[in-house]
Specification:
The protein has 90 residues and is mostly helical. Helices cover 31% and strands 0% of the residues. It is globular.
């Protein structure tokens, strides 16, 4: 049973995956919120082609910036190149 058909997580061995119970995303989200991390489905919503370096909020911010068209492309930046200097974030 999949209580969250939109779920992008393909780790079906995880007991928190919605295919393994009828509580949707609740169990997974509760665990991730408690740990202070972003669930992998949020990374998968950006791309499944690359693995994140980690799952912290900062890791997610970097992942989004590195894997989405840049906001500064009109300023001559290339896709995937940040329009701001992020070197001091890490």
């Amino acid at each position: 049973m999949n209580s969250a058909p939109f779920c992008t997580c393909d780790n079906y061995k995880c007991e928190l995956n919605p295919v393994n119970h009828d509580q949707g995303c609740n169990l997974c989200m509760e665990k991730n919120l408690r740990k202070g991390v972003v669930p992998n489905c949020m990374f998968f919503a950006i791309t499944k082609d690359k693995k994140p370096e980690g799952f912290t909020y900062v890791d997610f911010a970097h992942f989004v910036l590195d894997n989405t068209p840049c906001a500064g492309c009109a300023e001559g930046k290339q896709d995937g190149e940040s329009s701001t200097d992020r070197s001091d974030i890490r």
